[in-house]
Amino acid sequence: MNFETVIGLEVHVQLDSRSKVFATEDFAFGAQANSHVSPISMAHPGALPSINEACVLHAIKLGLAMNCEISRYTYFDRKNYFYPDLPKGYQLSQDAHPICQGGYMNLRLKNGENKYISLDRIHLEEDAGKSIHDQDPDNTLIDLNRAGTGLMEIVTHPDFRSAEEAGLFLSEIRKLVRYLGISDGDMEKGNMRCDANISLRPVGQEAYGTRVEVKNLNSIRHMRQAIVYEEERQALALNAGKSIKQQTRTFNTETGTTAAMRDKETADDYRYFPEPDLLPLWIEEETLDEIRAQLPELPWQRLKRYTEELGLGFKKAQPLTELLERAQYFEALMKEGLTARLASNWLLGPIRTHLNESKSEIEDFPLSTATIASMAMLVESGKLPLKLAREKLFPALLAAPQREPLALATELNLLMEEKSDELAQAMDALIAQHPEETERFRKGKKQLAGFFIGLLMKQFKGKLDPQEVKKIVFEKLNG
Amino acid sequence: MKITDELLHKMAHLAKLEIPENEREALKKDFQKMLNFVDKLQEVDTRGVEPLIHITQEKNRLRKDEAILKLEREQVLKNAPDQDGQYFRVPKVVKK
Question: Residue A267: its pLDDT value, please?
């Protein structure tokens, strides 16, 4: 039987803020264990939470960017469960009135088609601490640094039909939160994590099959692997006439497989109730207008502008807008006077190659946009051959980022010189050396011009204006 | 709603409590009394009444995003029943 995969995602994004969402201490990735902890995150008796304004604004920004309805009235709930890295015995989260409801995102698939993904909600909550199970043979170790840091949970409807779509969504979310400046979305640091609900149904059937939830997928690659594995596992079971158990499963990064964590026959009983220690939020229209006005250009708006206004193809506009910093560098190059085509050629060509090879990011790139622009202009004005610019001047500038391109090119003797007299003489000599080719050219074999152009270019080591060479070769051959 | 052994067991499990056999009947009785009280309240017709979730008229108490309060690690771990100078130690949560 043929099956269709149905996937819904829950994406947790860690909020970038100076202090935690309900506690007042800061948080640093990779800090010494239990060095960013306060009585609030330890749940000491009498310690009261308070709501971080920045986290609320961040969540509204994301909601507006994803076309959600922002709740005018929202509050926090206690989600009760017992685990040692959750000292309070409950997580501050949102159940009945999340801050953002609905919303959607359009994905552009590899085949060029659009895929509409609708959201259920985005809510604000706090993260738990970290349990370490493999360091001490007899105990579980608890680090509370992460306890109380702010998370946004984005919950989608089961709209995905493949690992590709789900992976694309994650990379779009990562791009979006970086553009918005609300999180670095770095999955390696655990700043973005994802749970995937996966089920199969026979092609053509409307009712969903029984789903499993694969928890804590911490890279796009792992998420895709987990989905593909579940597709195979569930299809095998269904084809053998077995039913799928509703389960929570974990993904094993070493084997690329999933394994059952616990059965989930009944819904989890978290006994949500409103958090009495926090006041509700009433979000005013003026607040929303202010935030709307501050929203930066979003990734897909920028992509549209690049393709429609700057006339770039999708293949160029897409990588240019992929990273905010890259897009900013590109636009700075244009401010320096380069056309969109030239700026993108340099950025996606030699600069990107250099960054890939040195495993660095555009933020660390040593050459200013002014330097790149003046090198590109030297090429455009015909003073510097493109090949020499890319192969000689660019590496030389990387080694001496403060140098001025024209001065360095002169010093390295890369610039084309006014050589028409020398060229004419050299061409005369070539004609004398190659009477046979000259004769054949004159009898109509015009392609032989290329033979002479090649010889001249070789003789002058490429530092010639191709147009000028061509002109002299034809003049001389035509006698 | 009737408090059964099954329900009592579920409540105890969610709260990670072990209830000794000889206390069960008494607890069941207490629980039942509480539920009966709530049942009584539910006789009131509340159609069209907005639920009262927060009892004050206060709203929008937001804190400026500043890092101000943090403890030294020594203080953090000081009152823990078990710790190793860096981490809190708790019984093994995951089976080996």
Answer: 56
Chain A residues in contact with B73 by the CB 8 A cut-off are 32-35, 37
Residues 6+ apart with CB under 8 A from A179: A296, A297, A298, A299, A324
A45-83 pLDDT tens trace: 999 999 999 999 999 999 999 999 999 999 999 999 888
User: Chain A window 40-69: which residues touch B at a Cβ cutoff of 8 Å?
Assistant: 40, 42, 50-56
Chain B contact for A111, CB < 8 A? no
**Residue B91 counted as domain residue:** no
- The nearest CA of chain A is from the CA of B52 a distance in Å of 11
* CA–CA distance, A294 with A351 (Å, rounded to integer): 31
Q: Provide the number of CB pairs (under 8 Å) joining chain A to chain B.
A: 125
Chain B contacts to A (CB-CB under 8 A): 10, 14-16, 53-54, 56, 58-71, 73, 76-77, 82, 84, 86-94
Whole-angstrom Cα distance, residue B87 to residue B83?
6
Distance to chain A for B22, nearest Cα, Å: 25
Ordered DSSP codes for A288-344: HHHHHHHPPPPHHHHHHHHHHTS---HHHHHHHHHSHHHHHHHHHHHHTT--HHHHH
Q: What is the mean pLDDT of residues A156-180?
A: 96
| Contact across the interface for A84 and B86, Cβ inside 8 Å | no
Residues in B closer than 8 angstroms to A269, CB to CB, are 10, 14
For range A336-352, the mean pLDDT: 95
| Rg over CA atoms, chain B | 23
Least confident segment among A62-71, A81-90, A92-101:
A81-90
- pLDDT above 70 for B63: yes
Q: Where residue A9 falls among pLDDT bands split at 50, 70, 90?
A: very high
Q: Is A265's pLDDT higher than 60?
A: no
Domain that holds residue B34: 5-41
Q: How far is it, in rounded angstroms, from Cα A134 to Cα A140? A: 8
CATH code for the domain of B35: 1.10.20
List pLDDT tens digits, range A212-250: 999 999 999 999 999 999 999 999 999 999 999 999 999
Q: Sorting pLDDT into bands at 50, 70 and 90, what band is A264?
A: low
Q: Is the pLDDT of residue A347 over 90?
A: yes
The secondary structure element, H or E, covering residue A398 is helix A394-399
Q: Give the SS3 label for residue A146.
A: coil
ipTM of the complex: 0.88
Asked if A205 has any chain B CB less than 8 Å from its own CB, the reply is: no
Give how many domains chain B has, as a whole number: 1
On chain A, the residues whose CB falls within 8 A of the CB of B16 are 82
What chain A holds in terms of domains, given with CATH numbers, is: 3-286 (no CATH), 296-411 (no CATH), 420-477 (1.10.10)
Asked if the structure places residue B29 within a domain, the reply is yes
Amino acid A245: pLDDT: 92
Q: Which residues of chain A have a CB within 8 Å of the CB of B14?
A: 80, 82, 269, 271
Look at residues A38, A34, A43 and name the one whose alpha carbon lies nearest to residue A19: A38
Domain-embedded: residue B11: yes
Residue B25 lies in a domain: yes
Characterize the bridge pairing of strands A114-126 and A150-156.
antiparallel
Distance from CA of A104 to the nearest CA of B (A): 27
